[in-house]
Each structure stands twice: as structure tokens, then as C-alpha cells.
Design brief:
heterodimer, A: mainly alpha, Rna Polymerase Sigma Factor, Chain: A, 11 helices, 0% strand, B: alpha+beta, five-stranded mixed sheet, 16 helices, 46% helix, globular
């Protein structure tokens, strides 16, 4: 159950206590990772974007001011910007993981274990054929429609949360959502989502 | 909207709402990243890098980074003129190589690429150089000593960039020689970073003497212009600088936002907009937004329009129209969205040429969809036309009063002004629509920007 006050306190603590940031990381890693996977359909890329998101969050947490939206929404916003960067350039350069591995000693894990983990994840993703088909169609929409549809349906965010993440009025989000689905439907005969 | 249509609309929403989502876990990677993050320098970013530990135990520990920025600025302001003219008047100096990693260092280069002098441009730079005897050595040796010293004190972390500005002094150095000097600088730094497994971004630019002159006279360091010059050249960078006076913007504000202006300029050129047009766009935005609060929004919108297929002139006109309609810029986003939707070249994702008959029998161009509050509550029309059935929903659907067909409990009635400005995307006849899969980046921040929590 999301406890807004607890998260708020944790964020305040995380500004000077790395362990508190670690807790925030634990609470949000999976959600951000899966959001990125569902946006990109690419586990490796999603993992890089997720890492970059948390690196940037850690770098900037001292500047984070709690207003109307949660820390997790802020993470979604960072991830969203990283995704935009990827979609715009059709490539993504994440240096965080490499840097962290070389400079700050990532925990030694055998390459085989990492490979096994990746293969298992990839197989799991590929089993969701229906999702992947819809994701592909959503991925063809303009970015603004992708944003709202993915947040709404791929991450189960409320309109209010999406408005916070995208920093837009709720009415605009609803409109974008409506129009995004409208556009999606015109392609549905190819997708056969019903 | 009739009930059967409601049903079909609900069905489409339900498909999305009930889709089984993959839930992927990467526990090994998650744990490794966690530990690395918490051990990384990012967690200690407010810790001060104690340059003095290399030398005497004096100086700077315990000072916040912001103080360094202020101190560096003061030092630069105090010494820029004297520093510059000192170099100009020193006959043996043929070029300057200025590094900025925070600290900032200037190397005066003599003939045969020997270092004539090395000066710290800020307190950190001075501390770093103290005790080092660099004069008379080859520039590559000096750069290696300096980068090694930076590495030793932990300055070469990922979050930093190494900026290098190379400036010729008068006619003391030939073009081939300055090219060789730049190559030497680049190779030396890159080689060192590679040897150490460091992945810092290194940017090197040749700044014209004229630009250097103007920059220094502005009380800034040439390094601030490295990105801009790399993107558009010294000549155009000079014109960007001239915008301060042309636009009448507060000088301090302009300098504070110069990074942003440069980044936007570069974004535009990356998007295929010519440097000359980018300059026009920046001028337009500056004139509309003297406080520079909406500058990024305006330019981002222009880039989006261009990337969606408008010519620069058309995009600029749309921007100007939006500014004219609402000089306060409060509704700028919505007004631009309207323009995007009117864009005949906008080619969403759908290949209309192969599209199955839509559920409406009107031609889109004949209908001005009034994206009013009613629309917010409308579910999308049925998406899967039966192959044998041409659905012919009534045009009035678009104007009908709100119904209860939104299954989403989160969607509540609102009458946002934003939506009232919106026109439909589909108001162009399909046959006229050229398809591209442009990404709309209108929400985009600069790539490396962290979303401002203020906005949250």
C-alpha cells in the first residue's frame, strides 16, 4: 500500500543518507524497470534506462522538493525523458552502468548468471504476445499519445498521477488519452486486439 | 452515441485495461546496481573534493560546490581582461588551451607546442597547479600531468565533462599548426582516460580569436562556448552572443541562461534547422519571453513542428501565431498543440492508405471536431470494423452531450481550457496525409535534464 507520508520522510532522509535512497530504490526499481520494458520491449535497453534514471535521481535528490506529486512520479518523469531521448535518436547511450561497474565495483557476478537472468527475462517477455503486439502499435503513435497510454495502461497510473508525471492538466491528459486510443483503434484491424 | 457503440467503445478500453502485462524481474542486476549506486560518488556529490590534500593541508575542504562557482566567477571576472591582454602581449604565446573540469586551467602555448605558462583560473585550478612545474614542457606531457592530478583527487567522475577551448593568439600560429595542437590535446586526454577506464565526455573546440575576445570581454570563459562553437562555428556563436544586446534582455540573466540558449541552438541544428534559422527562432523566443522562463518550451515546440514535417517558416509562423494569440504564453502549449493538429504534413502512425473504413462516414476534412468536454468522456469508437460491415456512425457523435461511456473511474468531468483549444488530429482527409512516424517530443526536456521537482 502506498504510504505517501512515509515516502516523503524517506525522501527527506535520502538527501543525506544513502541507505534511505536505497529503500526508495527498492520500492521503485521494479516499477521503473517494467515501465521501461513495456515502453521499449527491450530488456537490455530498459535496464540501461532504469539505471540512468536512478543515477540521475540520486544526483538530483538534494534538489527534489516535495510538492503535489510523489517521488515515484518524479522517477517516472526522469525515465520518461530518458525514453524520449532514446526514441528521438533511436539509440541510447547509458554510461552509468559501465561507469559504476568500473569505478565503483559492481558486485561480482558471473557473466553466466547474468546471461541466464537475461534469457529467463527475455523468455518471459516473449510469452506476452498479445501485450507485445499492442505495444508495437502503441509505439507507432506520436510520443505524447504513447506517454499517456503507456502510463495509463502499461503502468496503471491514474489520470491525476499521469498529469503529475507529465506536468500537464488532467483535462489535457484525458484528451490525449482519448485521442491516442482513437488513433490506436484505426490500426486495430491489423493488430486484432479484440 | 447509441448503446451498441458504447459497448464497442468499452470493449476497446477493456482490452487495453485488461491486457496481461509482463512483470519482469532482474534481481541480480537490481542488487548490483543498488550497491554500486550507494557506493558511488553520486551519493557523496556534495562532498568537497579536497584538492589541497595533494599539497598542504589548507584550503577548501568543507566548502560547498556553489561557493566554487561563485569564487570561480569572481576570479574570472577580476582577471579576465588582464589575463587576456597579458597573453596577447606575450610574444612567445601562440595559442591558449583552456581546460575546464571545475577546476579551470589555462595553458599558454608557445612555439613547438611547449607550455609557456599555466594558470589556474579558479581557486581549485590554482591549487591543482601549485607545486607543479609545467613551464617548458610539451603540451601533451603537461596535459597528462594535469589529467592525472585531476584523477588522483577524484575529480574525473562521470558527472563531469572535460571542456577544452583552443584559441589562437593573433596570427602567431598557422591553421595547420593549430589543427595539430587540437589533435594533440584531444589524443592526450582521450588516451589518458582510456588507460584509466574513465568514460568522461570530452569536448574540444577551436574558438576564433574574435569570439574569444568577445567572450572574455563579457566576463565569461571561452569554455562556455565549446558546445555551441562545435555545433555552429565561431561566427554564428558570435551572433548568438550579440543577441544579448539585440534583445535587450537583462545581461546577467542572459549569461545565466547562455547554456540553455546554446543547448537549444544545438537542438535545432540537430533537428536539421539551419544555424541562420535557429538564430531567428531564438530571437523570436527571446523577444516573446524576456524572462526566459518559456524559452525551452517555445523552441522545443518549434523543433517538434519541424520534425513533424512543417517547413521552418511554417513552424515559425505557428510559433509566432501562438505568441501573438497569447503573449502571456500561459496557453502556449495548448495553442501549439492546436497547430500540430492542423498540420497537414503530420503523419501519425497509421497508414491511412491501407486503413479499413472508419466508423464514421464523414470525411474528416468536413468535420471540425469540437474537442469539448463531451469528448473527454467519449470512449474511442469501435476499433475493429467488421470486414463486411462499413460502420457509419453519425457525425453528431462528435458533438453529443456527455454520456457515461468512460469506464475509467479516474476520468472525471473537467472543462479544462486546454481541451477546448484542441482540434482533432483527423481533420485532414486521409488521402492528403503523408505518413511518417515522427516522434512528438513536445514534452521533452533537454536530454540530460533532470525534471525539475518544482514542477511537481
Amino acid at each position: 500500500m502506498y504510504d505517501r507520508q512515509a515516502e516523503k520522510e524517506l525522501v527527506a532522509q535520502a538527501k543525506f543518507d544513502p541507505e534511505a535512497f536505497g529503500k526508495l530504490y527498492d520500492q521503485n526499481y521494479s516499477a521503473i524497470l517494467n515501465y521501461c520494458i513495456r515502453r521499449t520491449g527491450n530488456i537490455e535497453l530498459a535496464q540501461d534506462i532504469t539505471a540512468e534514471t536512478f543515477v540521475k535521481a540520486l544526483k538530483s535528490i538534494s534538489r527534489f522538493e516535495w510538492r503535489d506529486v510523489s517521488f515515484s512520479s518524479w522517477l517516472y518523469r526522469i525515465a520518461g525523458n530518458e525514453l524520449i531521448s532514446y526514441f528521438r535518436k533511436n539509440s541510447y547511450k547509458s554510461v552509468s552502468l559501465d561507469y559504476l561497474s568500473e569505478s565503483h565495483g559492481l558486485e561480482p557476478v558471473s557473466p553466466q548468471e547474468l546471461e541466464d537472468e537475461f534469457i529467463a527475462a527475455q523468455e518471459k517477455l516473449e510469452r506476452h504476445k498479445e501485450f507485445l503486439a499492442i505495444r508495437e502499435q502503441v509505439g507507432k503513435l506520436k510520443q505524447k499519445y504513447q506517454d499517456v497510454i503507456a502510463l495509463r495502461y502499461f503502468s496503471n497510473k491514474s489520470i491525476q498521477e499521469i498529469a503529475g508525471i507529465l506536468n500537464k492538466p488532467e483535462g489535457t491528459i484525458k484528451s490525449l488519452l482519448h485521442r491516442g486510443i482513437e488513433k490506436l483503434k484505426t490500426h486495430a484491424n491489423k493488430v486484432r486486439i479484440t | 452515441m447509441d448503446k451498441s457503440n458504447d459497448k464497442k467503445n468499452n470493449r476497446h478500453h477493456d482490452v487495453l485495461a485488461n491486457i496481461e502485462l509482463p512483470e519482469i524481474e532482474l534481481p541480480l542486476r537490481q542488487r548490483r546496481l543498488r550497491e554500486a549506486l550507494l557506493q558511488s560518488g553520486y551519493a557523496e556529490k556534495d562532498k568537497i573534493i579536497d584538492l589541497a590534500k595533494r599539497k598542504q593541508n589548507k584550503g577548501i575542504s568543507g566548502t560547498k560546490p556553489g561557493i566554487w562557482v561563485i569564487a570561480a566567477s569572481i576570479v574570472v571576472l577580476l582577471f579576465s581582461y588582464g589575463f587576456y591582454y597579458a597573453f596577447l602581449t606575450a610574444p612567445q604565446v601562440v595559442a591558449n588551451v583552456t581546460l575546464q573540469v571545475n577546476p579551470a586551467i589555462n595553458l599558454s602555448i608557445g612555439e613547438r607546442n611547449t607550455v609557456v605558462d599555466a594558470i589556474g583560473l579558479d581557486e581549485q585550478g590554482q591549487q591543482l597547479l601549485s607545486g607543479l612545474n609545467l613551464k617548458g614542457q610539451q603540451v601533451q606531457d603537461v596535459l597528462r600531468i594535469i589529467t592525472n592530478a585531476l584523477h588522483e583527487v577524484g575529480i574525473l567522475s562521470l558527472e563531469r565533462r572535460i571542456l577544452v577551448a583552443v584559441s589562437p593568439v593573433s596570427d602567431m600560429i598557422s591553421e595547420p599548426d593549430i589543427t595539430i595542437l587540437i589533435g594533440t590535446v584531444r589524443n592526450t586526454i582521450s588516451k589518458y582516460l582510456m588507460e584509466q577506464g574513465l568514460l568522461l565526455d570530452v569536448k574540444i573546440a577551436l574558438l576564433s580569436e574574435e569570439l574569444t575576445d568577445v567572450v572574455l570581454a563579457s566576463g565569461l570563459m571561452p569554455l562556455y562556448y565549446v558546445d555551441l562553437v562545435n555545433a555552429v562555428g565561431s561566427e554564428m556563436a558570435l551572433q548568438v552572443l550579440a543577441l544579448e544586446k539585440e534583445s535587450g534582455i537583462d545581461s546577467i540573466l542572459f549569461k545565466q541562461e547562455l547554456d540553455t540558449i546554446s543547448a537549444l541552438f544545438i537542438d535545432m541544428t540537430d533537428a536539421g534547422i539551419s544555424a541562420e534559422n535557429a538564430l531567428v527562432a531564438i530571437k523570436t523566443a527571446l523577444n516573446a519571453d524576456m524572462q526566459l522562463t518559456m524559452l525551452s518550451t517555445i523552441i522545443d515546440a518549434l523543433i517538434n513542428l519541424v520534425e513533424e514535417g512543417l517547413s521552418f517558416e511554417e513552424a515559425l509562423m505557428a510559433i509566432q501565431q501562438a505568441i501573438h494569440t497569447d503573449p502571456t504564453l500561459q496557453d502556449f502549449d495548448e495553442l501549439i498543440e492546436l497547430s500540430e493538429d492542423d498540420n497537414p504534413y503530420e503523419t501519425d502512425e497509421i497508414d491511412d492508405a491501407h486503413e479499413m473504413p472508419d466508423d464514421d462516414d464523414e470525411t474528416d476534412s468536413d468535420v471540425q471536431e469540437t474537442d469539448d468536454t463531451d469528448d473527454q468522456h467519449e470512449l474511442p469508437d469501435d476499433d475493429i470494423p467488421d470486414s463486411d460491415v462499413q460502420e457509419t456512425d453519425d457525425i453528431d457523435d462528435q458533438h453529443e452531450t456527455p454520456d457515461d461511456d468512460i469506464p475509467d473511474s479516474d476520468v472525471q468531468e473537467t472543462d479544462d481550457i486546454d481541451d477546448q483549444h484542441e482540434l482533432p488530429d483527423d481533420d485532414i482527409p486521409d488521402s492528403d496525409v503523408q505518413e511518417t512516424d515522427d516522434i512528438d517530443d513536445q514534452h521533452e526536456l533537454p536530454d540530460d535534464d533532470i525534471p525539475d521537482s518544482d514542477g511537481l
